[in-house]
Amino acid sequence: MSDIEIAQAATLRPVSEVAQELGLTPDDLELYGKYKAKITAETLNRLLADESRPKGKIVLVTAISPTPAGEGKTTTTIGLAQGLCRLGKRCVTAIREPSMGPVFGMKGGAAGGGYAQVVPMEDINLHFTGDMHAITAAHNLLSAMLDNHLHQGNALSINPLTITFPRVMDMNDRALRSIVLGLGGRNGGVPRESGFAITTASEVMAILCLSNSLSDLKTRLGRIVVGQNREGKPVTATDLKAHGAMTAILRDALKPNLVQTLEGNPAFVHGGPFGNIAHGCSSILGTRLAQKLGEIVVTEAGFGSDLGFEKYCDIVAPSANLAPDAVALVATIRALKMHGGVSKKSLNKENVEAVRRGLVNLERHAHNVADRGAPFVIAINHFYKDTDAEVAVVREYCEAQGWRVALCKVWAQGGEGGEELAREILACLEEPSRFKPNYTSDMPLEAKLNAVAKQVYRAEGVELNADAQRQLKWLETHGFGGLSVCIAKTQYSFGDDPKGVSTPANFKIHIRELRLSAGAGFVVALAGDMMIMPGLPEAPAAENIDVDENGRISGLF
């Protein structure tokens, strides 16, 4: 059966029953039908303030460099949590909400797969509880108030040429990357060049995911810098008096969403920044709440160790004391073959030597994880065409390096197929974690960029073009040098060229632009040709999605 058929055939528990096993009552929930709920603000605040509750251990799931063949990192995350629950642990999953851009584009949904999914799968992949729409609306309210301010006389003396705040939508649409706003005249608005980003790349998305409370959210929203005035000083959302209304729009979106896995285990699905153009991790509130309610929290960072994992270590963990206690590094035979030079159409043929050649990519990611100090396991996510000989090559290599390794069959077997990985993770949790980030906040911005480039990508460093150098000087002059960095680059390579080799040597990371996300607390560095608005492929997944007269959806994966 397909993923959606498996999800539709499942018998779901009422979400109130799932909540009850976490010690929550119906009064702690805001129901969105029978199978989805948000945690009330009162309950969230009460639980997070309760210092008597022990904090659960954090297991962070990352991966090797992805390929078009797919690695199943979310599937492994959910299956691992199911496996831990089968071993008697009170485990809670905390993952991101899918964006509809990839759902209708090339990647498809992000609710897991096979017998390791969060459900109701269709709802989660589509509108869910409306969080994405709220983030889109809050972001675009600020955009509208900014352009209205220009139209109404521009009392703040904003220089339109310096405006860096785009509009957003939760869809892939390359035609909106660069546009001209306003037709001028009495009613047309002030003409200026602008564009759209996808909602998951919005600073408002990052702010929601990094906020620790409603007041923190409002403060961060107020710090958003939309551009500069005629004197070159930053203009903020607070200056435009927009942050209060934005917070009102996001009041409910800030509350974590509770659903369940296919095996009825609790899962918080909340927030959804992209892993390559944003920081790629679910909300801090969702993870902290899961810590309060579970013995173990399994959470996921977007794409490979060079992207979401690095940003978890350098942005998320330091901001909320959420250091990982153990890490699962997902690898697949399919991806290792592609890194070893095999084309996608030939992946179903046994090729031990290609797997062996691809291990260089696994090695680099494993060292990234090891360098951060947390105990880790290599999780071989099994596909049915993988052969014993190919799996043996990876096992033998990992064991020779002294790394824990486990075969993971969660797509086909659910939690049962995740028990081997779960046991290895439990062994990791018995070891001390000596977690450390890649850089400290007192380092200059360029030094932080170089630290990530050298320590994580194994590059010679970064190379800033003339525009980025000017932007760097402005950022440091105006007091933003202490922020973290969020490098937006391709997921397909350690370098910035998506068509280059996945594990290059003797290279630099080329930074073409630095974008300030003051509310989120970082500077986005655009590397190579990375776009913040993806486009649809030649044959979008949307072409295969349909719904019958009874409302039953098909073609969603």
Q: Secondary structure elements and their pairing?
A:
Layout: H1 3-9, H2 15-21, E1 29-31, E2 37-39, H3 41-49, E3 57-63, H4 73-86, E4 91-95, H5 100-104, E5 112-113, E6 116-119, H6 121-125, H7 131-151, E7 167-169, E8 179-181, E9 192-194, E10 196-198, H8 203-210, H9 214-222, E11 225-228, E12 234-236, H10 243-250, E13 257-261, E14 266-269, H11 284-293, E15 296-300, H12 305-320, E16 326-331, H13 333-339, H14 352-371, E17 376-381, H15 388-401, E18 404-408, H16 410-413, H17 419-429, H18 445-455, E19 462-464, H19 466-477, E20 484-488, E21 509-517, E22 522-527, E23 546-547, E24 553-554
Helix pairs in contact: 4-17, 7-8, 7-10, 9-10, 12-14, 13-14, 14-15
In round numbers, the mean pLDDT is 95
User: How many DSSP H or I helices?
Assistant: 19
The portion of residues assigned to helices is 25-40%
Distance between the termini: 11 Å
Number of strands: 24
Structural class: alpha/beta
Q: Radius of gyration in whole Å, from Cα?
A: 23 Å
Residue fraction in strands: 15-25%
Q: Any idea what the shape is?
A: globular
Low-confidence stretches: none
Task: Describe the structure in your own words.
The protein has 557 residues and is of the alpha/beta class. It is built from 19 helices and 24 strands. Strands 1, 2, 3, 4, 5, 6, 13, 14, 15, 16, 17 and 18 form a twelve-stranded mixed β-sheet that branches. A four-stranded mixed β-sheet has the order 19-21-22-20. Strand 11 and strand 12 (234-236) form a beta hairpin. Helix 14 (352-371) runs parallel beside helix 15 (388-401). The radius of gyration is 23 Å and the shape is globular. The model has no long low-confidence stretch (mean pLDDT 95).
